[in-house]
Design a protein that fits this description.
single chain; alpha/beta; disordered N terminus
Length: about 500
């Protein structure tokens, strides 16, 4: 049997150059070699050579190995069908590794090809966005909306304005959004959109003209009961305001079609803070499982945008010592810790003057390390809040070497597959973004509820609901995250917990 498995893996590897497949084959062969350390006598009893593991764990490795061909076959189809979309491949692969073994004894999911259908968008909209800059010149950008899955509610997910935006990036984000939204237990499907427009360095007038042109096409594809976008990178309060104003003008109606709105026109309190606060609430639940807390812990944060800012604020409030923030130019290392006064300066720097994080170092006399990420700084907790794949395998090893015990993703997929594997192999508390950063979309869902009810909840009410949602997401991860060796995998728990609710809804609704 083992010889056949190895033979199949070798044959599969011929002609497969994609790094995800290569990594998977290497991992598979390592597990096979470990199993081959067993010697079976003629009575089929098992003698374990110097490998200190129970038979239960050994058989688990064998079962895992035997399911890898299914994962490889599935990923080969995904890659062939979506060429060049590496981030989408990565996101699907991370989910498939958990879901395919989970559905092995659940024929209802296999027969209906639920995972294959989840990985295919229900609808993709691509459109031209022409607009005029302050010099009177016509500029043209490309707009997108990926409506990924609506099994449990209207499509829900942000709009990203950044030069790096492309279809593959948005498909990865929309795919992640399905599971994240499902984990909140609120009625929200998964979607994502945006444009390759860069708002940095643009005047308010230029941003308004672009947003109005963007919404002039997008408005026909969204509504409060069909698709409810929100903000993301490059889309903050200013952009949401311009987008909402144009939608209202075109439709001649005032509805909750966007979330992240200003409090003066239907927005929810706590919404700007929600993602960052939620990350810290989730970390607190993880630590509580080990009779610990965030108080007194050294925390390293990447990024300095919305999520990083409010992660920082909540860490300060709960007594942690935050040492770093970063942007694309490098990171600051404040050995004394960032306090409330320094936090106020960061909010002014990043949200009003829109300056670089290096200005903080000049102001407070701390180190600024140009061109690097903060993962070399010794810490207890690392919170990657900047962008996808910012923390790689070498960074993970450095964090572990320097004493890190917990990693929680504030950004979407900021850790590479290698980094995740290293964290889990070394028993580091690791929380994937679909669980840890779900606070933002959770409060977006609460904003949708408030808009439908035509009322506003107090800050305290919304914050309490956010804490409850993060507690429930953590409980779901524990429920589905148990591994045969007794450890908890938050990645497995989040993937399976998010999948089950969507899959059951898809089964109930038939082949649509």
């Amino acid at each position: 049997m083992l010889k056949a498995v190895i033979g199949n893996m070798v044959r599969l590897s011929v002609g497969l150059a994609h790094p995800l497949i290569v990594d998977l084959l290497v991992s598979s062969l390592q597990k096979v070699c470990a199993i081959m350390l067993q010697v079976f006598n003629s009575n089929h009893s098992c003698i374990i050579l110097p490998w200190n593991t129970s038979k239960k764990k050994t058989y688990f490795h064998l079962l895992t190995t035997l399911t890898l061909t299914s994962v490889q076959s599935f990923m080969t189809r995904i890659i062939d069908r979506n060429p060049g979309e590496n981030e989408f491949h990565q996101a699907v692969h991370e989910v498939a590794e958990n879901i395919i073994p989970f559905i092995q004894d659940k024929p209802q999911y296999q027969k209906a090809k639920i995972l294959e259908r989840i990985a295919e968008p229900e609808r993709v909209i691509i459109f031209r966005v022409p607009w005029m800059n302050d010099q009177g010149e016509v500029e043209i950008n490309r707009g997108y909306r990926v409506q990924m899955n609506s099994a449990i509610g209207p499509y829900k997910g942000g709009l990203r304005f950044h030069p790096s935006v492309n279809l593959g990036t948005l498909k990865f984000l929309a795919f992640e959004q399905i599971f994240k939204n499902s984990l909140t237990q609120l009625p929200m499907g998964g979607g994502k959109g945006g444009s390759d427009f860069d708002p940095k360095g643009r005047s308010d007038r230029e941003v308004m003209f672009f947003c109005q042109s963007f919404m002039t096409e997008l408005f026909r594809h969204i509504s409060s009961d069909n698709d409810v976008p929100a903000g993301d990178i490059g889309v903050g309060a200013r952009e949401i305001g311009f987008l909402f104003g144009q939608y209202k003008r075109l439709k001649n109606e005032f509805t909750g079609v966007l979330t992240g709105k200003g409090a003066s026109y239907g927005g929810s309190l706590i919404r700007p803070e929600a993602t960052g606060y939620g990350v810290v609430y989730f970390v607190e639940q993880m630590l509580k499982q080990h009779r610990d807390s965030i108080k007194g812990k050294r925390v390293v944060i990447s990024g300095s945008g919305n999520v990083a800012q409010y992660t920082l604020e909540k860490c300060i409030e709960l007594g942690a010592k935050v040492l770093t923030l970063s942007d694309s130019s490098g990171y600051i290392y404040d050995e004394k810790g960032i306090d409330a006064e320094k936090f106020a300066y960061i909010m002014h720097l990043k949200n009003e003057t829109r300056g670089r994080i290096s200005a903080y170092a000049d102001r407070f006399g701390c180190e600024f390390i140009a061109g690097k990420t903060p993962w070399e700084v010794p810490c207890d907790i690392a919170l990657p809040n900047a962008t996808q794949n910012e923390l790689n395998g070498d960074d993970a090893r450095m964090l572990i070497k320097n004493g890190c015990m917990c990693v929680a993703e504030g950004a979407n997929m900021p850790c590479t597959p290698e980094a995740i594997s290293i964290f889990e192999d070394n028993d580091i508390l690791y929380a994937p973004g679909k669980a840890a950063n779900a606070g933002g979309v959770a409060v977006s869902g609460l904003e949708m509820s408030q808009n439908s009810l035509r009322l506003s909840w107090s800050r305290e009410e919304v914050d309490k609901k956010l804490q409850d949602i993060m507690f429930n997401i953590h409980s779901t991860c524990l429920r589905y995250g148990h591994k045969p060796d007794g450890r908890i995998s938050y990645m497995q728990g989040a993937n399976i917990g998010g999948f089950v609710r969507v899959a059951d809804a898809m089964l109930a609704q038939g082949l649509v």
